Amino acid sequence: MWIADTWNDYEIIDCSKGEKLERWADYILVRPDPQVIWDTERIHKGWKTRNGHYHRSKKGGGEWEFFDLPQQWELHYQSLTFRLKPFSFKHTGLFPEQAANWDWFSTKIRQAKRPVKVLNLFAYTGGATLAAAAAGAGVTHVDASKGMVTWAKENAIASNLEDAPIRWIVDDCVKFVEREIRRGRKYDAVIMDPPSYGRGPKGEIWKIEDAIYPLITLCTQLLSEHPLFFLINSYTTGLQPAVLAYMLGTGLQKFQGSIDAQELGLPVSSNGLVLPCGASGRWEADA
Q1: pLDDT 10s digits, 36-65
Q2: What is the pLDDT of residues 141-174, one digit of tens each?
Q3: Burial call 53-80: b when 16+ CB within 10 Å, e when fewer
Q4: According to CATH, what is the number of the domain 2-71?
Q5: Is-contact 46 14, C-beta < 8 A?
Q6: The domain 96-285: what is its CATH number?
Q7: Model confidence, pTM
Q8: Helical H segments across 184-240, by residue range
């Protein structure tokens, strides 16, 4: 398991009865988590003094209940600053477990000793984009949601990366990749964090089981002669680490490199557990 254990501004304090108690900078949130199926006594005072609590509905979805929580606040990771806010379906605009991947590919970029062009698909609010840019890469950030791209730009400004070489693209990821192939563009690295299900800006349907492998093979046509890495993240239950590894192994077989895939995890400070938070598959070029 790859564990994101170098945070100062974020921690999972406790988890019990389907929920986790988290500290996001100065604020305490309670949010549901389907992995937390055990039942332990809730001793920490944060369970009662939380600033926000997302309640799941038995009918699907849910809603926030707030107790002295600002509409927006900031969270820091190393040199990066993220602007957070509670919004639909329990999210805050950041997945802290991804810091394990940010650290990995940032090291790869810095050690490359050459210009590195990164394509970040389904790029959300820009965590990976900003980490790659801070490490010295030029990044093309693609997401179908204009609101998410705007949010990512705000994070870039907050992180003093407003002048970094980042292309901000609002587009359907598959169609953008197809156009980049026709344009003859090349990238040294690809990052993708696809949703289980979604729609593009013109109603295009995305279903991960049907679409992910064809997209991987499309992206290999964008890779430069000497690619650096290829990273896939998945929060879809059916896409276990081994499946991510097999897809990368078959999709990138013409390139010389090694593959690893693991669960991502976040430590729980009160009891020493590590909470599973999805999976990642990594391909990296042979040294």
Answers
A1: 999 999 999 999 999 999 998 877 789 999
A2: 999 999 999 999 999 999 999 999 999 999 999 9
A3: bbebeeeeebeeeeeebeeebebebeeb
A4: 2.60.40.1180
A5: yes
A6: 3.40.50.150
A7: 0.94
A8: 208-220
